[in-house]
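This follows on from our talk about sequence and fold. Can you supply me with one protein entry, sequence and fold together? Could you add the entry underneath, on a fresh line?
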Amino acid sequence: MTQELTREELEIRIADVSENIRTLIEQAAAISGAADEERADERIEEQQALYELLVRQRDALDQAK
């Protein structure tokens, strides 16, 4: 089941995910160890994919107007 988000909700989620990405990048710079680095990279990739999805949803919503 997919829930439709309003533009305002999308903007809030985009901002939250963007902040998450910044935080994860800062944390990744401070960690050491291959396993930790790999996990940090995976988490950043997940957040970037979510960011791109939310931006596409927002753009589609704008085009539907």
About this structure: The chain has one domain: 7-63. Residues 34-63 form the longest helix (30 residues).
